[in-house]
Amino acid sequence: MLSQLVKAKQFMAVVGFLTGCFALLLQLYLIIQNRTTGVTETLIRYFSFFTISSNILATICFYFIMGDPEPGAKPFFARAKTIAAITVYMFIVGLVYNAVLRGQHEPLQGQAKIANELLHVMMPLLIVIYWLVFAEKNMLEWKNIFPWLIYPFVYCVYTLIRGAYVHFYPYPFMNVDFWGLSTVLLHCLYMCIAFLVVAILIVAIAKVLTKITMEKLTT
Predict the structure, then answer these.
(1) Residue (of 120, 164, 53) closest to 45 by Cα position
(2) How confident is the model at residue 61 (pLDDT cuts 50, 70, 90)?
(3) HEC profile for 169-219?
(4) Tell me: the pLDDT tens digits for 125-144?
């Protein structure tokens, strides 16, 4: 039974890693092929999307999980707290795109649609399912939440500072030229609150599932 669980865990990690690599490379190919600016600026813009950076983190995470390292010897990206944090980021990626951004542009077709769905639907689903089924949860504490918020906060600061110079904003709700700084700052606050709420939810679920597991072991 244990060996089957390990195999299932590693299989899902392989699927996540291959899906992430394919989606990221396909999106990179498409953005370079359809670029409206120089290659260097296009590459910077590619990595400036929260979706891309979060999917990169998730793909790296799946890569390290594939090796199934021994307890106590896990690299950073295979640790329970890291996996939980990336799960929060990817959940927000899927939630924001499908609840807010989907439908704000013309329907995508062909390769663009494939890359889009893999990055915004499949990868978030894969890592959320992995976390729920396989990830260690007994190590998560409430104090872990605020360090997880550093990455989205820094992302917002970086995007606004760079946008002020190059007037490129990866997402419509962060476009200072359109909304004005005060409104965009409010949008960023809402986003940070969303990250906080999802992080709290993740830790709460972890604690409930850990309690249920412990009760089963003692009965």
Answers:
(1) 53
(2) very high
(3) CCCHHHCHHHHCHHHHHHHHHHHHHHHHHHHHHHHHHHHHHHHHHHHHHCC
(4) 999 999 999 999 998 999 99
Q: Which amino acid is at 207?
A: K
Spatial distance between the Cα atoms of 173 and 176, rounded to a whole number of angstroms: 8
Contacts of 183 (CB under 8 A, 6+ apart): none
pLDDT in the model for residue 213:
81
And the tokens for 51? 């979706």
The pTM assigned to this predicted structure is 0.94
Geometric angle at alpha carbon 97, from 95 and 98, rounded to 5°: 70
From CA 88, how far away is CA 82, in angstroms rounded? Answer: 10
Contact 199, 140 (CB under 8 A): no
What is the overall mean pLDDT for the chain?
Answer: 92
- Two structure tokens written together for 137: 């949860």
Burial of 109 (0-12, 13-18, 19+ CB in 10 A): exposed
Phi/psi at 190 (5° precision): -60, -40
Alpha helices for the chain (secondary structure H): 2-33, 39-47, 50-66, 80-96, 110-117, 123-133, 145-148, 150-166, 176-179, 181-217
